[in-house]
Amino acid sequence: MARPASMRRSRRVGEALIERSMLGCALLSVVTTAAILAILVRQTGEFFAEVPISAFLFDTQWTPLFADKHFGIWPLLAGTFLTSAIAIAVALPFGLLAAIYLGEFATPRIRGVLKPTLELLAGVPTIVYGYFALVTLTPVLQKFMPELSGFNALAPGIVMGVMIIPMITSLGEDAISAVPGSVREGAYALGAGKLATVFRVVLPTALSGIAAAVVLAVSRAVGETMIVAIAAGQQPRLTLNPQVPVETMTAYIVQVGMGDTPTGTLEYRTIFVVGATLFAITFAANLLSQRWARRFRER
Amino acid sequence: MNRLRPPATRPPSRTLEHGFRWLCLLAALLPVAVLGVLLFDVVRTGIGRIDVQFLTSFPSRRPEHAGIIAGAVGSLWLVGLTAAIAVPIGVGAAIYLEEYARRGRLATLIEVNVSNLAGVPSIIYGLLGLELFVRALSLGRSLLAGALTLALLVLPIIILSTREALRTVPRGLREAGLALGATRWQVVRQVVLPLAIPGILTGSILAISRAIGEAAPLVVLGALSYVDFLPDGPMAPFSALPIQIFNWTSRPQAGFAVNAAAGIIVLMATLLVLNAAAIITRNRMQKRLGR
User: Fold this and answer.
1) Does A281 reside within a domain?
2) Which among A225, B96, B184, B211 would be 20 to 30 A from A152, CA to CA?
3) How many domains is chain A built from?
C-alpha cells in the first residue's frame, strides 16, 4: 500500500537523523582523543615556555614541589622502569607457561574453566592490589630482606606482575593457537617430541605474537597507577635499587592531584608534562604491539 | 626461517614431557591461588569490622568511628551517572560501526581510534577530566565531572563488547527484515537489538564494574577522602569507595588498615554481585531466545 509522500519523507528524514546521531556517538571517541592531545600539548607547551627542555632532559633531579626546583624527568622514568621491569619479570614466565598450557596441553573442558579463572586476576581493582602490595606483601618480604624499606619498588612490581599475567596469557595463547597444526605435525613427522616441537617450532613461529603480548603488558605496567602510588613511595630517585622508595610518573600525578595545587602554576603544569611523557610511551608501545599482533593474525 | 636441522639430542623422555606439562599447569594455577590467599587474608582481617556502624558512618579521624557510607553512596551515584551516559553513547557508536558505516576511511579512523583509546592509562583520563570537565566546562570537582570522566574511560569497552554482540546476530535476519520493506533503523531496533541485548548487557555490566574499581582518575580530578555529607545531586562534591580505601590504606595506624580491608570486602562483594548478575541475565536471556 502506498503511503502519502509526506509520510515517506518524514520517515526518511527520521532515518537520516538516527544515522547521524549514531555517527555522532562514534565520532565522540575521536573527539576524546583530540581533546587528550590538545590538553597535553597546550599545558606542555606552557611548561616549556618557562622551563628549558634541557632542564627536563638533562637534570637528574625531580623536585618541582620543593623550594629548590629541579625538573629532570629521569628519576620518575627510573621509578617507572624499575617497577615495570619487575612486573614483566614476574608476568612473562607465568603468563607464557600458562599460554603454552592453554594452547598445547589443555583439553577444551579444562580450557573453558582455566581461562576465565585466569581472567579474574585482571578483574580485581588495582586499589585492592595496592593494599596487597603495601599491607600484605611488603611485611612478608621484609622477613627475608631486612634492608627492604616500607615503601619500595619490589612489592608493587611483583603484585603488578600478577595482575598483568592474563594479558600475556591471552595474547600469547592467541599467537600459539594461530600456529597451523600442519607445522606441528611436520615436526612430529621429523621425529621431534612434544617439547622439541613446542620450543623449536611453535614458540619461534609464534614469536611476533608473544612479543606483542609483552609490549602490551609493558604499556599496561607503565600506566598502572594505584599499586605504585600506594606501595612504591613518593620519593623521585634515580636508582635501580628495588629496596628503596621510588616514585613513578603515575604516582607523581596522583601526589599532586591529591594536594590543592592552584591552576596555572608551574607545579600544576608538571602533571601534564609527566602525563604527556606517559601518554607518548604507552601510545608507542600500544602501536608496536598492534603491529606485531597483526603480523601473526594475518598469517 | 632457519634451515631445518636434525634434533641435536635424542627426543627427551616422557617424564620430562610430563614434568613440563605440570610446570605449565602450575604456572597457570599458582597466581590464581596466590590471589585466593590474599583475598582470604583480607576477609579474615576485615570481616569483623563490617557492622551497621561501619556501613552507616562517615569518615573519622579515629578508625573505630570511621565508616564507608560517604564512599559507598558516592560510588552508587557515580556508577548510575556513568552508566546513563556511557551505555547509550557506546551502544550508539557500536551500532553505527556495525550496522551503518560503509568500509572506508572514516570507519577505519574510528575503529583504530577506539582500540587506541582502550589502551590509554586511566590516569590520563583523569588529566582530561580535570582540564575539560572540572575547569573548562566549570563543573567543579563534582559527581558529574567524575561520571563524565569515567564514562569516557569505559566507552571503548562498551563499544567493543557491543560490536561483538551485534556480530553474533546472523546476517540473514537483517536481510529478511530489509526485504520485507523495513528501514535500516526498524531492522536494528526490532530484529538486531533484541537478539544482541544479552551480550550488550553483559559487556555494559563488565564496563561498569571497571568504573566502580577505578580510583586514579578520580583522585586526579579531585574526589575527596573526607566527606561528612551525602551528595544531594550531580553537582555535589563526592567521595568513592576506592578513594576511601586508598585513604585508609595510606594511613600508618593499624586500625585504618583494618578499615581498608573491610572496605575492600564491600567493594569486592559489590563486584561479585554485579558479575553474577551479568552471567545470570545472559544465561536467562539466551535460554529465552532459544539459543
Assistant:
1) yes
2) B211
3) 1
Give per-residue burial for B104-127: e unless 16+ CB within 10 Å, then b: eeebeebbebbebbbbbbbbbbbb
Q: What is the CATH number of the domain that holds A270?
A: 1.10.3720.10
Dist. CA B92–CA B83, nearest whole Å = 14
Do A25 and B96 count as a contact with CB atoms less than 8 A apart?
Answer: yes
Per-residue pLDDT reduced to its tens digit, A208-263:
999 999 999 999 999 999 999 999 988 888 888 888 899 999 999 999 988 777 87
Mean pLDDT for all residues in chain A: 89
Q: Considering only CB atoms, which chain B residues are within 8 Å of A122?
A: none
CA of B166, closest CA in chain A: separation in Å?
A: 15
Please classify residue A149 by burial: count the beta carbons closer than 10 Å to its beta carbon, then call 0-12 exposed, 13-18 middle and 19+ buried. middle
Give backbone dihedrals phi and psi of A71, rounded to 5 degrees, phi first.
-125, 35
Q: What is the pLDDT of residues B238-287, one digit of tens each?
A: 889 999 999 888 888 888 888 899 999 999 999 999 888 888 877 777 77
In a domain, A15, yes or no: no
Residue B1 confidence class, pLDDT cut points 50, 70, 90: very low
Domains and CATH numbers, chain B: 72-239 (1.10.3720.10)
Identify whether A207 is part of a domain.
yes
Listed by number, the residues of chain B in 79-118 with a beta carbon closer than 8 Å to a beta carbon of chain A are 88-93, 95-97, 99-101, 109-110, 113-117
Residue A276: which domain range?
Answer: 74-298
Q: Is residue A290 part of a domain?
A: yes
Amino acid B290: pLDDT: 55
